[in-house]
Amino acid sequence: MLSISRVSLILCLLIITVGCQQKGSEPSSDNQPSSSTEQTAQKTTGDPASSSAETEGPSEKENEKPKIPELPKTVQGNWVLMLPQREQMMPLYLYKITLNATTNEDKNQSKEKTEAQAVKILAKGADVAPAKIVSSKVSDTTVEFNESLLNDGKEFLRLSFQGKLQLDQGVILGNISFNNENCIPALLLPTMETDFSKIKGPMPSPGSQELMQAMQSPDPFKQLNEFTLKMKSVPLIMDAYPTLMAIALSQKKDKKTIEEIISRYLETAKLWGTRQEANSLISVGSMLARSDSDSDLAVKYLDQADKLIKDGVAPLSGWKLEMALARARAGLKSDKPEQIQAAGKLLQDELKEHPNNRQLLTELVTYEKSHGSIDKAIDYLGVLAGSPLTGREQQLIAVSKQNPEAVKYEHPMDTLTTLWKEKHGSTDGLDEYLTKSFKRFLQSFVSKEAKEVDLKKGNRVSLIELFTGASCPPCVAADLATGVIEASFPDSKVIVLRYHQHIPAPDPLTNTDSEARFILYNHRGTPSTNLNGQPISGVAGGVEQVDSSYKQILEALIPTLSENTNVKIDLSAIAKDDNLELKANVSGTEKIKEPLRLVAVLAEDELQFQAPNGINVHDMIVRSMLSEPNGFPAVDGKLSLNKTLPLNDFKGRLTDYLSAFEEKSGANFTGAPLALEKLHLVVFVQGELSKDVFQVASVPVSGTITYKTTEPKSKPEKEKPATAPKPAEKSKEKAGKPEVKPEKKEQ
To answer: Where is region (Disordered) located (predicted)?
Structure first.
């Protein structure tokens, strides 16, 4: 096993050795000439020793083994930033750190610019984003800097490093925070290089094999405890301690053992900086507050973290909430009414700042059930049960079923059902309440930036198209984020359409048209999102990523909301005499240079369906496109729609598709949602070449929507069910289904 000091020395030794074997290598520092420079100088002075060395073979100096350099005494020099991971340490950036870099000229410049000169980026590792130093601060043995990671010249991530030189090891141990949201160990290793050409890629992470073996051993507590005693200076030690603590708490180790582990944990955390120490104190306090241990012990460590923050440690963005949750959990375990009430107030205060935080809502349910109002408990549970579970909640539920003595966590839907029955005597009205609660959940994400948009500016309506799947876990964030967009703006400014796909599993909300539209955009997976015909990246994840996905869409959307266009769409949709009468007329397209298409869609709103990924309320689901997926072409220079669609044909086309898919795939769509009641006609104008959407309009179908009950028609024996067709083959696939009445493509 290599210690950090030996790893750094070996890395330096390898770099030095490689450098000596190649001519024209980079100088090791500004004050040391390269070997090629020395040779040039020797030839210029006519040194006979030089000539002799060239003809007589290797000199004694060339045969000498490279010497191990002395350990750095200050932070000045070149350093490689290594990001420790479970199995390897990844080299990110190569820096040059300079002490006393400020010149007289610098003193007249801004402080940020002056400080930035203390740390300079020389090179970046392979597959690492370009970056620039924003600010830095150094002393003889410490270094801090903030760095912007760039994408197309714009910052997408902020890296903050804080570290201290370990004189006995020759490395700078510290920690990294990304966007001020987390804190992980990191280190700077000394190097003589000025680029990455001779620095090898990822290095094996010290202690990775030992840690894996300890965690998989029959007695992980014993093995992890030994690991933490032996591997004090490896980065993975900061992964080992929380796991060791969790096992100790679950095995109900005595207080002395717990405190001894915590003492070593915090002592080790100090090596990686005061920010890492504070982060570890909060982690310890949080773990103790969740356990059955003495609540005073949790408060003790939380108080120590508070002191570090007051003494100058800049808090990470999540610390305040995590500490509040830990203090509240500790308070709720108390038998003193005043502490319990204080815990409840603390949770309620935090909920004002974090209205959709599920941990806060869960703790408030606990508080209200035992010490407050059942109505409020139901209110909080409505949000928890009406929206998808987080990954952590799913794990807790699974573990609690396997080992209820170790973990007690009830599904929020089960808790809500019990309380609802206690209050109302039955579950009548619960589904409607969950739908309203889901809408409240979405509303809680609406940002201040969205609320401040001037809706009077611009007449262009924007279209968001989401390609999603009912069994797709990362589609949760995209589905909910687009729902938050709908909660943020009226449909006179933004319209959202959702096209379901059989990805990664059969989906009863999918249809031929939604698949064809997916192919039209050349998408490769779900979720995929388009704004006005153009793709948006970064919209994906679980319920934990709803806010970030929402902000990603919002950033692209807001500039479009103030745009003006001459394009106007007039439309109407009426259900009458078992038919849908659909009309649309477009004007104002004369100045658009490319060929245009009129795309018409029937979408169903507020559809109730318990999807495998946890979403139960589905809005604006595309049920049919009234032409090919790229829409109607202009006729005599005009884009228009005038179509009569029998309601039974509309529904029959969907049911026939699902039946055919069931027959071919073996899927079971029993109970598929096919009410098809809250329909909307959505029409938009799209460029045939650019795929840009120039205008969109929507109107709910008025009148009475009724479907005749008919027996399913039998299929010919030789007929094979159609699968998701390609756009060019769509009309052929339809013709191959004798039980479906062909639709006329009218304009």
So the answer is: 22-71, 706-747
Round to the nearest angstrom and report the end-to-end CA distance of the chain: 75
Whether 130 contacts 148, CB under 8 Å: no
- Residue 107 is given by DSSP the state G
Average pLDDT of the chain to the nearest whole number: 86
List pLDDT tens digits, range 483-529.
Answer: 999 999 999 999 999 999 999 999 999 999 999 999 999 999 999 99
Domains of the chain are: 1-202 (no CATH), 207-254+267-272 (no CATH), 255-266+275-442 (1.25.40), 459-735 (2.60.40.10)
Q: Are 698 and 682 in contact (CB under 8 A)?
A: yes
> How far apart are the C-alpha atoms of 731 and 722, rounded to whole Å?
12
Cβ atoms 144, 136 nearer than 8 A:
yes
**What one-character DSSP code corresponds to residue 510?**
B
Report the distance separating Cα 254 and Cα 424, nearest Å: 45
Q: Tokens representing 501?
A: 């796909």
Q: Which amino acid is at 87?
A: E
Euclidean distance between CA atoms 725 and 640, whole angstroms: 26
> Token digits for 441?
């959940």
Q: What residue ranges in 399-484 does DSSP mark as E strands?
A: 462-468
DSSP E strand boundaries for 373-511: 462-468, 494-500
Contact status, residue 262 vs residue 249, Cβ threshold 8 Å: no
Going by pLDDT thresholds of 50, 70 and 90, the confidence category of residue 294 is confident
- pTM (global) more than 0.85: no
**Rg (Cα) of the chain, in Å, rounded?**
33
Length of the chain: 747
